[in-house]
Write a structure and sequence with these properties.
With 165 residues, the chain is mostly helical. The protein has nine helices and no strands. It has a domain of 56 residues.
Amino acid sequence: MALEQQRLSPGERADLVAYLDGELDPVASQAIATKLSLSITARREAEVLQKTWELLDLLPRPEASPELLSKTLTGAKLLVEQDATRFSSLTRLLHSAGRILVVAALMLITSGLGYLLSSRVWPDPTARLLRDLSLAEHFEEYQAIGTLELLEELDRSADFSGASR
């Protein structure tokens, strides 16, 4: 087929409206312009399309009925109200979740402080038992001594005071 009789490809035909409106990117626009300048058949297709658009502009435009306008506005208002309702319920949900998180954090902090107080400040009864374990093991022997007078006499005697010191 001769170069002057080449038709527009389906892709070029799809881009032709954007080309005629001046909305096509420069590369594609240059490709279509080159094809239109070389091919009489492609140029006729573009002219037919342009004339069709011009004739469509001459047709009377129908006006929407007031009822359609009213329904459309009412529907739009309902959509806005539904969005507002969804937004407010989402906001309430987020506030509730925030409150729950704050309460959980306070409970965690309070539990941690309680644990620290009970482990560091509160006296441990088992520690005292461990400290006094030797007294508990030899309690009967200490009871047999009776008073401290015997221990003081032993301390003054030469046998115990010189040998141990």
